[in-house]
Amino acid sequence: MQQEVVLAMLAKEPSHGYELRARLRDALGPLGEAMNAGQVYVTLTRLERAGLLTAERSADGADRADRKVYALTPDGQQRVAAWIAETSWPKPDLAEFHLKLIAAAAAGLADPLAIVDTQRRELLRRLRDAQRAAMAEPEHSAAALLLEGVVLRLQADLRWLEACERTWTHRRSGS
Amino acid sequence: MTVVLSARDLRRHYGGGERAVDGVDLDVMAGETVAVMGPSGCGKSTLLHLLGGLDRPSGGRIELHGRRIDNLGEKALARLRRTGIGFVFQSFHLLDELTAVENVEMPALLAGRSPRAARRRATELLDRVGLAGRAGALPSQLSGGQRQRVAVARALSNEPAVVLADEPTGNLDSAATLDVLRLFGSLHEAGQTLVIVTHDARIAATADRLLSMRDGVLIDETRLTGGTSGRLGSLVRLED
What domains are there in chain B, each with its CATH number? Predict the structure, then answer.
């Protein structure tokens, strides 16, 4: 889990570990199911060591991570503010697939159209899974909005695969 | 498995050498959802119109439950369109001056059912598509997604052997598209046979079988059985 995400989820107020995890679960819905508590606590420990947050044992003295109260330090608050202002954005790695088609065709390793086809099936499966999950979400859930984003990106990727198919069909019949 | 609808060497040629549908073979099994995908102009709408008897083929044959329908007379074809086949269109094709329930009961009335039986059936169907509370609304008072759900209810009026849908989500936003997909999913679970032509990958992804159409022919068939890794989290960058 990205460090800034964990920090930012604590920006509202100091919180217990289990509260932090509940917030993440609500925001991610089924997309967060695979996320385990261990990953979050590993990140929290790193952030504490970096001086970006403090971890206080709760009053009952238990040492379990989800009973500790985590709070941002001033450095942590600055880091969150900088992260909010960032415009970084995930870049889909289209170049890799593009080069795969070119290399496969050039070396006669595989038919680019067969590669496109296999890839399309895989993306359609993902689209189906994302869509089923979206359909199962209650209206206006935070996770439904995230799933809509996943669905839209997959649709864009599928349209690009259509363009790949057209171009490679043309190249093959032209050569 | 029973074949509900089948086409053999189906063709629709126009003057000037245009071949909108050029030799399609297709078997649709009972209870199956089949999506036909392709770019605009690939012939998919024409194919659907041929399958539903809205257009006449230039050659080949079509059977519904083993009975040839491509050579029926006008009258028999009209009856078939009213009772054997349900249609759903991109632009809904509802009658604007009739309420939702009146639109839905129309096919039953045309098929000769009593007004009371037709109304009862229409009311049930509106309930099934989640619009029981909007029976008295005019189409203009409904959202796009609601109008399409009324159109689906109407298509089911006479318990058709197959429902044919032409770009059913073409005029809908994401939320309304999900509603229609949910509805198709529930029809599928109830055993309804569905053929959907579309360029919307979201529909294609929910079908049992996906056929790709180019230049009037079916070029590829995909079954989306089996899942991804099953971990939805891998769809976003939560897990590296």
Answer: 1-31+40-84+195-225 (3.40.50.300)
Contact B168, B200 (CB under 8 A): no
Q: Distance from CA of residue B54 to its chain's centroid?
A: 13
For residue A19, the Cα-to-chain-centroid distance in whole angstroms is 21
Q: Can you tell me the mean pLDDT for B113-130? A: 95
Question: Residues of A with CB below 8 A from B236's CB?
Answer: 31, 146, 150
Each residue's pLDDT tens digit, A50-108: 999 999 987 666 567 778 999 999 999 999 999 999 998 888 889 999 999 999 999 99
In this complex, which of B39, B228, B239 lies closest to A34 when CB atoms are compared?
Answer: B239
Nearest to A40 by CA among A17, A14, A70: A17
For every residue of A133-150, DSSP letters joined together read HHHHSPTT-HHHHHHHHH
The CATH architecture to which A3-85 belongs is Orthogonal Bundle (1.10)
- Record the tokens describing residue B167, joined without a space: 């770009």
Q: For B205, which of A31, A131, A148 is closest by C-beta distance? A: A131
Alpha-carbon distances, residue A145 vs A9, A85, A159 (angstroms): 18, 22, 21
For chain A, the domains span: 3-85, 94-174
Q: What is the pTM of this model?
A: 0.84
pLDDT of A117 higher than 60: yes
